[in-house]
Amino acid sequence: MSSLLSMKTIAIFVRYLMLKLMKKIRQPDDDRPVIAAADQLLDVLLPSAFEFFRDSRFRQSVDFEKQSHVEQDRIFNELQVSAMNLCLFCLEQRESIIRLDDFHFWKEVYERIPVAFEEKLLSFGVDKGNARLFKDLIGIRHEEYAGIMEANDEWMNREDEFHAIADNRIKESMIRVHALVIGTADHIRRGKLKKDDKLMKHVRSWLLPLDVKINRFIKNL
Fold first, then answer.
1. Three-state secondary structure string covering 116-147
2. pTM, entire model
3. What range does the domain containing 189 cover?
């Protein structure tokens, strides 16, 4: 088992190095590095959402076994959409972690992500109509969570401890993760989220490390 995991880790690392090389020698009309970068980000986001979906503490917090299969599927869909939107927000705020000459590359990756996700769903056997609805849901949630982020920015900057943080990257991370925690938990609760709901703690424990992983990928590529 450990040898299989090691081989998988090596394969992922080699794939990443190949992408890094493709990006470095990329020609203006070559879309392959953009497509590959979006695909590799999806290979981080989707397994992360699935792993959290299977987490026993998370399932206990939502009374998972008591939910219908339709409701269980809906919860999983919300987690996938949240993972996608976290990545999109990281890419929108990429200026603080990338070189200026990489700006347009990551803009193209940003635009590619929803399309790549739709293609991934189709490859899983999802019909075109549902795949398109899923893609549209990402856009709907993105607009909604952006509104929460704006409110968070205004609210957090009133707090002395937050205002004292010198690193803007940390501030950006705190604002976007907190917005997604609130939005995701509220949708899972179907709009009945309470102020001290423990579900938010579980969602935060998932999204914070994922935020770090996404930004590390963007910064180091």
1. HHHHHHHHCCCCHHHHHHHHHHHHHHHHHHHH
2. 0.91
3. 34-220
